[in-house]
Amino acid sequence: MTVHSPLGASSAERWLHCPGSVALAKKIVLPDAEESEYAKEGTAAHEAAAFCLKNDFDSWEIIGQDFDGIVCTREMAEALQIYISYARALMAQHWMIEAGIGRDPDSRPHKDFYGTVDFAAYTDHPYEPISVVDYKHGVGISVDAEQNPQLMYYAYGVLHNLKTIGFPVELSRPVVLTIVQPRGFHPDGPIREWQTTAGEIKRWAQEELLPAMHRVEISEQFDAGSWCRFCPAKLVCPLLAGLFGAAQADTRPAMELTDEVLGREYQYIEAVEHRIKALKAAALSRLMGGSLVPGIKLVHKKGNRVFKDGAEAILAAKLGEAAYTPAALKSPSEMEKVSHEAPKLVREWCYIPETGYTVALESDRRQACEAPTPQNVFQHMILTKTAEES
Known about the structure:
Layout: H1 12-17, H2 20-26, H3 33-55, E1 66-67, E2 70-71, H4 74-89, E3 94-101, E4 115-122, E5 130-135, H5 149-164, E6 174-180, E7 191-197, H6 198-218, H7 238-249, H8 259-266, H9 269-288, H10 311-319, H11 332-335, H12 342-349, H13 374-389
Parallel strand pairs: 5-6
Antiparallel strand pairs: 1-2, 3-4, 4-5, 6-7
Helix pairs in contact: 3-4, 5-6, 7-9
């Protein structure tokens, strides 16, 4: 059984921002059921990919095989092959597959600095990049490679491993960090790369990562944000409970909601939503287990009407063509699964239309838009007309 570090790479974004969450999580036993099935599938996918890379298999050769209780399906194999092909192309001289970092407790930069990197590769040439790759099997949350703390943690671990074996790495040596996420949509595609240097990785580790690891040992400070999503302690977190309670008891008049207050409080919306989701999951779990929770009850979900067995023959005979929906073009994501050439055709004939506006945090990588006020729209029309006349 793999032992995970309480300050591991996969949770680095959380404890880098919220050091108090680590101590709080140690005091409780709250299984995060909402993520368990996805995590199990992800573990199996990583095991299958490592098996293929170590044994020189393509993913289609393992369809039907069992990995950690999950059978490899065609859909899983198609996703894995993108990662396998990318990693295999990097296998020049030296590579690491599901390899440990910080294995020797006596040489770790911090006692809790250890984990497993999905894939890394490097050559003896001092100016060729060191590649560090993380495979994401998930669909719902797209992950960026740029400034990704999990990837940077792994990269520092790889550099530390090379140091322990006496392999020289210049500070200027390029380091390419890559996220491979075939099943999750991202505007930059399923493979996202970010290039930095060994020196920058080491600087980040010395100035941000390691100080944060030491801060966890002495700090009970909490901070809420997107990193609350996977926090095992979000149901008992005092900060989230306070934010949730404040939302219930807030009686301030609307005139006090200045732009500054609105912007500050908007930062916590996502964190509160994560706690609400966790509360719903916990309530359903307890009621399904037979508990009587005051104020709530177990009911059937709302359902839609469906036809009985044999209804199609009767309805078709009496209503004819009117009983059927006319053929319609599949969605882009469905169309990509039709054949091997379909993804290329979809990329050629697909685009993302503008569908309106929404609000995002300043940290969001999308470019800010100018509000479509009458003045802005009118000015744009004038500029467009002037450009056409010229």
